[in-house]
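quick one before i forget lol
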Amino acid sequence: MKVYLVGGAVRDKLLGRPILERDYVVVGATIRDMLKLGYQQVGKDFPVFLHPDSKDEHALARTERKQGQGYTGFICDFAPTITLEDDLIRRDLTVNAIAQDDQGNLIDPYHGKVDLDKKILRHVSDAFSEDPLRILRVARFAARYHYLGFTIADETMTLMSNMVQAGELKTLTKERVWMEIEKSLKDGAIHIFANVLKDLDALPFVTPWQTKWDQNTASILSDQLKRLDPINDTYLRSAFSLWQYQADLSEYNLEQVHKIPKIYADSLRDLQANLPLLQSSDWQADTVMTILNQLDAWRRPERLSVFISTARVIDDNCAAKTIELNKAYKAASNVKAQEVIELGAKGPAIKAEMDKLKLKRIEAILTI
């Protein structure tokens, strides 16, 4: 029985990037062997185990044979006679098909280290075409490592294009597509992810509502993303909204049909509904009040926070107005019911009088 570190941990170590998780492949063992050693089995489709101490994932070396369409329907063989090379050849990219033994030696039968040095993302074998999810994964890796100068090999682009034309992406579930989108959002280069899919004519399968994507749009988004605060907890919603806010969503149900989480869809709709008001030349207290009411900022200030974080990076005009919007909200939110009650307001009139007072506070901010 031999254990090898594989995949992303080896790749990122060679690139000098932080290692977020460690995955291992085990050669020459059976399920019974692993259980006797105290490993906890967690895999359903094939044997994956958690190390008894580190809890790192250890998978038995395996081969896969395609049965049916899509990214499921694989028949796995995990006999102890399967070699490390047999296991590595089923992986997507050569840079992900490098292993390391317990002495630190690299096992690299498919020349992933060479491709890492050349900054090329290249498929390992033609078995790549059996899993359409790999199209999105490659687009995601291209985005993640774009800052290092990585590009996709021509032959891999051709293979992926053929897969798209064959309709393979139609077999992916919307939930799985969203998972790849969200991972690219976290990597901070969703525009590169979209560019790759655009070049493959794959965007209609991933974001069918987005019909205006081009290099100019990508360049603008790139600049906007750089101005977002990546530490802020609104970053992912802001990045998604900036990517999609010019799309026509009138015929699309993002949550029910396309499985976009509601928190993302709501942030996008908030931006689309309120950005025209923010950009309006008619910037008055009534305009500001409308934005605050539409965002339900009085009860849900986090919606306003996400809107401001997103809109402020669109252009200098929006940046200036979001500063005023935030100041106006702070001033207006200080209005309390007791203030108007003491002036004689009762029942339904209380809210009306509070709104009037809020408007006066907003007007005062805008005239400073």
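fyi The longest helix spans residues 262-279.
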